[in-house]
Amino acid sequence: MAAGRIRAGIGGWTFEPWRGVFYPAGLKQADELAYAASHLTAIEINGTYYSSFKPDSWAKWRAATPEGFKFAVKASRFCTNRKILGEMGESMERFLSQGLVELGDRLGPVLWQFMGTKKFDPDDFEAFLKLLPAAQEGLPLTHVVEPRHASFRTPEFIALARKYGVTICLADHSDYPLIPDVTGEVVYARLQTGSDDIETAYAPADLDLWARRFNTYAEGGQPDDLPAVDSASAAPTAPRDVYAFVIHEGKVRAPAAAMALIERVGR
Fold first, then answer.
1. 28-51 tens-digit pLDDT
2. CA-to-CA dists, residue 48 to 72, 122, 141, 223, 237, angstroms
3. Cα–Cα distance between 108 and 243 in angstroms, integer?
4. What is the DSSP letter of 134?
5. 76, 196, 229, 238: most buried by Cβ count inside 10 Å?
6. CATH topology of domain 6-265
7. Following DSSP, what letter does each residue of 65-80 receive, concatenated?
């Protein structure tokens, strides 16, 4: 049984402090996405959280990346930053119809990120999950949710995510809850505790540790050192693609960390 693909990357690609550190001095800004995509295997688009883009922008991003590369797309805050999640239907349709389909086979997971003050309400959250479509204009969609309140660390939330085949983000963060349970077709990690004081954001031993964890997930397992929230109900053993994004504060060394992970996982 072949293991899933492991991709590693960063959040966005336009960031001035990367110029001369990650991007070679003198590289045109218009060429930065193509350069990043030639050294990384995925990028999480964060700008979509704040604003929308025209279809030709999405098509241009696709054209700048090689075959096999993937974009994760963060959903609009107008979908997730609301008191009643089940009322996001119109905002969701507006977000999904802006041109995501222009990415074609470059489209990876859609990330639905919630505010740290948003608590787990089973009925409200199920109403939200029911709205998530399986496809947009014929293009299959993979959904990831990133809760940021400790109330989501409950087997009830794990069961709900599994019921709808939605992945829970594995957040390596000092404040947000760590939920390592496998609930969807992919595993999605956001590594947010790195430091720009370290050349690769994470120490080599920590990168080794994360690489082992990602390989375990890709092979269909659950890392022993990341105990599941719902230990009584394990996900089916099956190969899964893994997405790992390094997005720490400062993030100057994020590209170096992502490249170091790519080297370690060997996939």
1. 999 999 999 999 999 999 999 999
2. 10, 27, 16, 32, 33
3. 9
4. S
5. 76
6. TIM Barrel (3.20.20)
7. S-TT-EEEEEPPHHHH
